[in-house]
Design goal:
- This protein is α/β, with parallel strands linked by helices and about 220 residues long.
- Helices cover about 40% and strands about 15% of the residues.
- Strand 4, helix 3 and strand 5 form a beta-alpha-beta unit.
- The longest helix has 19 residues.
- The chain starts with 18 loop residues before the first strand and ends with a helix.
Length: about 220
């Protein structure tokens, strides 16, 4: 993932108290809605990340993971917006503090996707590439007389793979999702993959007493 399989990737022992996951990418790609979906919320639920037009995320916002104690999901402002131009973006959002990244894109592959994926790979950290708003993509493609949904999905996936490989990412993990149609496409696969990777990250990154404490709290909550 992010250029390495789970068996190839290794993490340093950072002795941290939290695992931090950054949801990043271009402005307007649906990052905040994805953060909400990963937490089991809709955009309109209490405690959900703000969504809408114009840009609503103006600074990194932290949200607790609904299942894993000591795991935080960060809604990161979109790169390329006026206040977050390329040269200052990584420093402003403190990119180095995160342990795993989800790059969110939609409609087209951009130079920002290339820059972010290369930066994450350089830091030797993992990332997923999530093509969001698949419901919108399919709705547009359905207007074509020769529309074929299976072929459309394969074309999008192949295009993402081609562009990421051109960026130097040899084995990227790509997910096509719609937060409004979570039972379609790759959303459930994304959830399972993230949960598996979080479990491994917790073991590799968190201090042993933090892991033990969170497991005890989880056990105490069981009926």
């Amino acid at each position: 993932m992010g250029g390495n399989s789970s068996t190839e990737q290794s993490w340093d022992i950072f002795e941290k108290n939290t695992v931090d996951i950054a949801v990043t990418g271009v402005w307007g790609a649906g990052k905040s809605s994805l953060v909400n979906a990963l937490r089991g919320l809709s955009d309109f639920d209490e405690g959900a990340a703000r969504t809408g037009v114009p840009q609503t995320t103006m600074e990194p916002m932290c949200y607790p993971h609904p299942i894993f104690p000591n795991v935080r999901i960060w809604d990161i402002p979109g790169i390329g917006a006026p206040r977050f131009e390329e040269k200052e973006y990584l420093e402003k959002v403190n990119y180095s503090q995160y342990d795993l990244f989800i790059i969110v894109a939609c409609h087209c592959f951009t130079i920002y996707d290339t820059q972010l994926s290369r930066k994450i790979q350089k830091m030797k950290k993992r990332f997923y590439y999530v093509w969001s708003k698949m419901d919108v993509n399919i709705k547009i493609e359905k207007r074509k007389p020769d529309f074929n949904e299976k072929e459309t999905l394969q074309k999008i996936r192949t295009d993402c793979l081609h562009n990421l490989r051109r960026a130097g990412i040899s084995s990227p993990d790509i997910f096509l999702v719609s937060v409004w149609d979570q039972d379609k496409y790759d959303f459930l696969l994304l959830l399972r993959t993230l949960e598996n990777d979080i479990d491994e990250l917790r073991k590799c990154i968190l201090r042993p007493e933090v892991v033990q404490g969170s497991e005890k709290r989880s056990h105490d909550r069981e009926p």
